[in-house]
Amino acid sequence: SIIEHSPVGFFHYDQHGTISMINQRFTDIIGASSDSIVGINLLEKLTNEDVIDALNESLQGNVGYFEGPYVSIMGHRSMHLIAEFVPLRDKMGVINGGIGVFNDVTEQQATTDTLKKLSRAVEQSPNVVVITDLNGKIEYVNPRFTDITGYLFGAIYPERLVYAFDHAACL
Length: 171
What we know:
Blueprint: E1 9-14, E2 19-22, H1 24-30, H2 34-37, H3 42-45, H4 49-59, E3 64-71, E4 78-89, E5 95-104, H5 106-123, E6 130-132, E7 138-141, H6 143-149, H7 153-156, H8 161-170
Antiparallel strand pairs: 1-2, 1-5, 3-4, 4-5, 6-7
């Protein structure tokens, strides 16, 4: 089925917060077996208050959302988690549980953190940094460029690098 082969973890919970169904990806994310997960009451077992709040939000009829550091209660796996809790209603409109979607984005978060560090390094570099596309059009200059040349990025964007400096020399 689509849910069983999904790249994100799915689980169903009833109106009391008890898990009744999970997919394989959910067991991978949590780091515990299906037998140990199905049947647990999330409202009793969860320790992360923000995740509990997101679950309760769904049991009140709204989509609950959590994003941040998380340690699974069953497998004790640390991760950066994005979780959504979507309420389900019966024919009468009464909330009878929900569907949870867990996505472990630890690797993506680590990449984002690394890019932020590199970006700060370029911004704070004592050297001039100019980034161009393959055709030599300027896409970025760091603050040191402005300090040395006196030109703001907007004054030279999107000129070609050679033209921008030739033009600046004529001024």
